[in-house]
UniProtKB/TrEMBL annotation:
UniProt GO molecular function: ATP binding
Protein name: Spermidine/putrescine import ATP-binding protein PotA
Enzyme Commission number(s): 7.6.2.11
Function statement: Part of the ABC transporter complex PotABCD involved in spermidine/putrescine import. Responsible for energy coupling to the transport system.
Subunit details: The complex is composed of two ATP-binding proteins (PotA), two transmembrane proteins (PotB and PotC) and a solute-binding protein (PotD).
Lineage: Bacteria, Bacillati, Bacillota, Clostridia, Peptostreptococcales
Database matches in Pfam families: ABC_tran, TOBE_2
Length: 347
């Protein structure tokens, strides 16, 4: 028995001459919080629409609990969608908004009442039944939109950049709330965003997409600490990326120096990309560093300083709780486990 609730098999979609999805294969597990992450135009929202039934694939299959859904209309799929524009009904109060789908199903009034109250409690808006939509803040409207989607008891909740219209503080609060709701209900959430912080904060699994293809899929920790290519490394967090040569197992050359590393399995003298995260660079005295550069910029970021260093014409970014002075010579040390080697691939 598979743990997958949705399987996308060879999904392709083209609009005129623009290929939006190119043979996409993706398995989504039951009770998983999965995030589709990538830049605008990468195909993540189209993927969501195909799962929902709002769009149909040109090729491939959409399986829901092993059943082919290709020709099943949206209202017959056990999914509901929350959009960035909440699409609440302004002429209805909060109770009526949440109850709308249940009334369409002709559910008994006492059962509707019970379910609406359960949803209001879930989204921490008890007592708001008679309030108008216009009286709510953006965050409260978002919660009502989620309650309206969940009251129908979907097996999968689709969320298309639902936090994009909120300010930073409210967006961060809602990230936490959404994860709590998903864990409490134990249903599958599929979340679309271009915001790496949202993806890292909430997800069990992140799917990084670019140009209609999956670049990498894994836990937030795997995606951040072990990016599979330069696109993922650049898109998830800041990275220092340099050309290198893998001379042998555990031996790499970049920036004109030879370093020990922890990677193996590459061809001898293979051209590769080297990724080093800014927080993994150790600042030292120039006389003691593996590499030496000149500080060109220092910006205070709150929890750390962002320090730019010019090392023989190569730009380095360092994140450190200690500051530095523009113009000073600085040494940089990098431990073997902080050097990540990636195969070169075309982006």
């Amino acid at each position: 028995m598979t743990d997958n609730i949705i399987s996308l098999q060879g999904i392709s979609k083209t609009y005129e001459d623009n290929t939006v999805l190119d043979g996409l294969n993706l398995d989504i597990k039951k009770n998983e919080f999965l995030t589709l992450l990538g830049p605008s135009g990468c195909g993540k929202t189209t993927t969501l629409k195909i799962i929902a039934g709002f769009e149909y694939a040109d090729d491939g299959k959409v399986l829901f609990e092993n059943k082919d859904m290709n020709n099943i209309p949206p209202y017959e799929r056990a999914v509901n969608t929350v959009f960035q524009k909440y699409a609440l009904f302004p002429h209805m109060n909060i109770y009526e908004n949440i109850a709308f789908g249940l009334k369409i199903k002709k559910m008994p009034k006492d059962e509707i009442d019970k379910k609406v109250k359960e949803m209001l409690k879930l989204v921490a808006l008890e007592g708001f039944e008679k309030r108008s939509v216009d009286s709510l803040s953006g965050g409260q409207q978002q919660r009502i939109a989620i309650a309206r989607a969940l009251v129908n008891e979907p097996k999968v909740l689709l969320l298309d950049e639902p936090l994009g219209a909120l300010d930073l503080k409210l967006r961060q609060e809602m990230q936490t709330e959404l994860k709590k709701i998903q864990q409490k209900l134990g249903i599958t959430f599929i979340f679309v965003t271009h915001d790496q912080e949202e993806a890292l904060t909430m997800s069990d699994t992140i799917v990084v997409m670019n140009k209609g293809k999956i670049q990498q899929m894994g836990t937030p920790e795997d995606i951040y600490n072990e990016p599979e290519n330069a696109f993922v490394a650049r898109f998830i967090g800041e990275s220092n990326i340099f050309d290198g040569i893998m001379h042998d197992d555990y031996k790499v050359e970049f920036c004109g120096k030879n370093f020990d590393c922890v990677d193996k399995g590459f061809n001898k003298d293979e051209n590769i990309d080297v990724v080093i995260r800014p927080e993994d660079i150790k600042m030292t005295a120039a006389s003691e560093g593996m590499l030496i550069g000149i500080v060109t910029s220092v910006v205070f970021k709150g929890v750390h300083y962002e320090i730019e260093v010019d090392e023989n014409g190569r730009k380095w970014i360092i994140h450190n709780t200690q500051s530095a002075k523009v113009g000073e010579e600085l040494g940089m040390d990098i431990y073997p486990e902080d050097i990540h080697i990636m195969k070169k691939v075309s982006e």
